[in-house]
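Service request form, structural biology core

Requester: graduate student, group of Dr. S.
Request type: structure prediction, single chain
Budget code: on file
Notes: please return the result as structure tokens.

Sequence provided:
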Amino acid sequence: MNSPTSTVPPAGQLPPAAPHVVAAAVEGLTSRLRKKLDAAIEQYAATPAVADGESIRISCGEDAVVTLSPGASGVLADDGQACCSCLLAPRCLHRAAVLSACPVADAGTDAGAEMGAGADAGMSAGAGTDAGAGAGAGVDTGAGADAGAGAAGGPPDVPLSGTGSATARDDPSHGGPAAGTPAGPTAAQVAAASGLWAAAAAILSAGVPAAGAVPQAELLRAAHTARLAGLPRAEAAALRVVRGLRAARERHDGHRLADLVAALRELLLTAGRLAAADPDPALVGSVRRSYQPGGSLRVYGVFREPVISGTGYGGVVTHLVTEDGRWFSVADVKPGGPARARGAATAPVAIGPAMLNHAQLARAGLLIAGATVSPDGRLGAGGGVRATPINGMSWTAGPMAALFARPLAEAVGARLSGQAWNESEAAERAQEPVGCDLVIVGAAGDHVLARELLPAGTPPERSGPEDDDPARRTPPAVRPDGPLIRLIPAGSHPDLAHVANLRQLASRPGTLVRVVGRLDPDRAATLRPLAIGPVPGTEATLRLPDGWQGRADLGYDRLQGSHLPPHDACAPWQAASEADVDPVADAPLWRVRRLVELAVAGGRRAVAERARSGDSRAQGAPLRRAGFEVAAELAAALTAEADRRSRDVFGRSTDSGPDGYAWAWLASAIHLAAADQALVRASWRSGY
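Core staff response, request fulfilled:
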């Protein structure tokens, strides 16, 4: 068993490799060896990795053993950390195949704890509970997470820009543009973005089956060049694409083609705009983990969220709120997978000398002095941070009361206000929890149906002063114009309690519950509940143990039948007639979605074959009849571009290049994302 300070990953796992290390190994191969690379990767990935002290040995044959020696961060960040015993080393097939089989290290990783637990792991959006359904990008990992505040390899607190320091950008006396005028990218950044565009367009044209190790290495090389040029957003998007390609080719259980489409869409859009010298500073992005002083904070625990990453990491994130409604988080994510996620539920909180574990913090509070905070609200654990435990806050007071009093449609509208084609921005906006009071209607398929309640204590009409008595107050009424809400598990791993708890709720229609959850930006009127509690002043609500202090973390606390209200206290509910209606899935835009995904899954040739069959013309008519004229035109342009053949002056067919096809695909993908987001927003505003 590895020691706590060991950099060797768990048994059977390979350490992460930096993008430039993998790219250099593949680039060193001859053309003959490159043709054998994909088969060698599949073979060596199934070969057991044997730990030998601080090294890992992989036997690739009788006379070839690859030795991996990760550094203190647990990452293969240097070419010399991967050696092979064969005569062709270091330009051998064994070494390149083993490195290509290693997980891709996060951008600028200097600490092993940063691996796998972020948004890039499993193509998700967050510190979630699965590889594919997460909730908080780049979660903190406890003590020392904010050491230096510059672990990502860039300036500690200032987002990377194209022209140097903030002073030089904004002060005319330094020769920079006037205040308020964004500076465009530098020549190096434009060149790096052009390289990313070329590599991504080639992968799109080839499709998943042909996007093997060699095209992936070219994209990794372009990503490393983007990092050196100071383009963290483009680099992160490129790494997400590589991870998605690997998951698709290896047919991982958690892989979703839609996630790969979204990552490729963001990469092409970001790289294309930067290559055209677009001055928007958001295209450059900012370095991860740029912690800044947060002064004194008084935070109150709201709920815990388990984290299980697809790259072998697990832990917990405890979400906190301040008196003015700002959200923060404290995380403990380390190697270990599901077992680590279970154990971290009661692990000590690594913020100052506060003697609390995560289970206690979720129901208590902290008074923090000298806090350090990342841009996404993660609390650091530096040596100067001091924290004192304080009493927790009830869900019926302060910012939590305001959270539940806000109409759900209004809260959701604010979280779906980002640019739909900007995957990172849309995911970041959707991460902030929402609160609501619901009545359980029943179950339908893989989700639980519910209706939103009006705020407790505000009946439609008051008949007299006795209504001011909480004991005689009218129970909450269903919001008449609210949608039918779908509740789906925030995590489906069998070691977690999400699925079992939703099953318990579905067994008692008419139960009133207070829910803190996260909306699903890709599905109509869908919430992923993270914690629940009783609705105050009602009988048909939860009866939780006193030790839970009025709330249950759905990933950890398991509901029992005794926690549900009696049957006679619940009003009868029947399955809603609109339970099977999904305005997003039922819209004819599925035809465009299938085309966009076909382009990624099968490449340009698959789209061209579809155009030659005449299917594209038949598919355009339903879109036009439904009013999606632009979608029909863009889909037709994509199929036409895929089948376009250029000829030289002698009439011979020539390659028109992937650029035109990539732009046509990008236009269709962006329009589809915007249309889908508009439908999702509409599904929350009214019933359907």
